[in-house]
Design brief:
Layout (H helix, E strand, L loop, with lengths): L5 H9 L9 E3 L3 H11 L3 E3 L2 H5 L6 E4 L6 H10 L3 E4 L7 H14 L3 E3 L7 H11 L6 E11 L20 H4 L2 H11 L2 E9 L10 E8 L4 E7 L1 E13 L2 E4 L13 E4 L2 H11 L8 H15 L7 H20 L3 E2 L17
Parallel strand pairs: 1-2, 3-4, 4-5, 6-9
Antiparallel strand pairs: 6-10, 7-8, 7-13, 8-9, 10-11, 11-12
The structure holds nicotinamide-adenine-dinucleotide.
The site of nicotinamide-adenine-dinucleotide has 22 residues, from loops.
């Protein structure tokens, strides 16, 4: 549902046709959905989620609508007895993500937030090396998200505003790169962040810098801008056993090639031997949907969970609160925190 980035989701499902069949498209703007349906042989186009919910032959509804709609729509999907897949940012607060966890428990259905960058082969290779114990102790991670967004991007009415986009570059753009960091190292324990709006005349931030102490004791630095004429995303993880560095393609830097340098020639050799065993699965959206299908089939953990989404939104909440108050913020963030119910800065 939602024929913007929904187009890339359709391509993701079409890449694993033995697992999924896209039966219907929903968009309040039927003119936007119709060409996408025609190009992909999708038989039904509707304009209201309630119509999708009434279709008995759907198992899953995938939500690709603007962020402020997700919380209600995910619940509507579960109430209709279907699994919900939902684009980032899943919801607008930690209270809402905790509420969805309660709703999911009682529903017998699953909710899967989308973090498709996780499934690039480069990042998956690092996960393999970590799982095999070759990385060792984490020291430092540096993450740079330097993208370019011009005025035309903000012509879509929900973008650039706290009420509907609910955040800027930290929430809407760097969220993937920061999820990749936590996917490898686990959650942050303490956060200090600066945010500013310098690139476009919008309400929300378009540049940010943050310093993190991770729960594992290592440290990380995050740099974010939407004003970079040359776009890159870069991850560099420095461990006792190896250094891992991503490529810098802005939107697919989790894919190959990544470089892995062992701390000794023996470790480098072990890394090479281990990577020779790497079994490539589908990447990006197709990779997440493939793993979703596997999890449902085997009853296992989803490739991205509500707990993962909570870690991501907790980091967002902490960064916004730090930027607002000028102090560092300790995690986890519990219900008694002033921004538990909404990370929006209080004006
Ligand atoms: N994972 C990623 O890499 C990625 C990339 C882009 C966008 N997104 C996320 O996807 C979501 C959508 O972003 P977008 O760029 O496609 O936005 P968009 O505005 O281009 O598209 C959203 C579509 O949803 C439709 N829509 C709005 N309200 C609806 C409703 N009530 N019922 C049905 N359809 C409705 C709109 O008509 C529009 O066609 C956002 O949450 C965004 O953050 C994720």
């Amino acid at each position: 549902m939602g024929a913007g980035i929904g187009r890339a989701h359709v391509a993701g499902y079409q890449a694993v046709p033995e697992l999924f069949q896209v039966m219907a498209l929903c968009d309040i703007d039927a003119e936007r959905a119709r060409p996408l349906a025609e190009e992909n042989g999708i038989p039904r186009v509707v304009t209201d989620l309630a119509e999708l919910c009434r279709m008995d032959d759907l198992d899953v509804i995938d939500i690709c609508t603007p962020p402020h709609l997700h919380f209600e729509q995910v619940q509507q999907v579960l109430a209709a007895g279907k699994h919900a897949i939902c684009e980032k940012p899943l919801v607008g607060s930690l209270r809402e993500v905790d509420e969805l966890a309660r709703v999911e428990k009682g529903s017998g259905r699953r909710i899967m937030p989308v973090f498709q960058y996780r499934f690039g082969h480069g990042l998956q290779k690092l996960k393999l090396l970590v799982a095999r114990g070759l990385a060792g102790k984490a020291y430092l991670a540096t993450v740079e998200t330097a993208w370019r967004r011009r005025a035309a991007y903000y012509e879509v009415p929900w973008r650039g505003k706290w009420a509907t986009e609910r955040g800027g570059a930290l929430l809407g753009h760097a969220i993937h790169a920061h999820d990749m960091l936590c996917y490898v190292l686990g959650p942050a324990a303490r956060v200090f962040a600066y945010t500013t709006t310098r690139v476009n005349p919008i309400e929300v931030e378009d540049c940010a810098a943050a310093a993190l102490e991770m729960a594992d004791g290592s440290v990380a630095s995050l740099g974010v801008t939407l004003g970079s004429a040359a776009e890159i995303t870069r991850h560099r993880f420095c461990f006792s056993g190896l250094v891992a560095e991503s490529n810098t393609r802005p939107y697919t830097n989790s894919g190959d090639p990544w470089t892995f340098v062992g701390d000794t020639p023996e470790l480098t050799e072990e890394i090479e031997t281990t990577l020779a065993e790497f079994r490539p699965l589908p990447e990006h959206y197709a990779g997440q949907f493939y793993r979703f299908h596997e999890a449902l089939r085997c009853g296992g953990e989803l490739p991205v969970t509500l707990a993962d989404s909570r870690v991501s939104l907790e980091l967002i909440t902490a960064m916004y609160y730090s930027a607002e108050t000028g102090g560092s913020v300790s995690l986890p963030i519990r219900p008694d925190h002033p921004r538990y119910a909404s990370w929006l800065p209080q004006t």
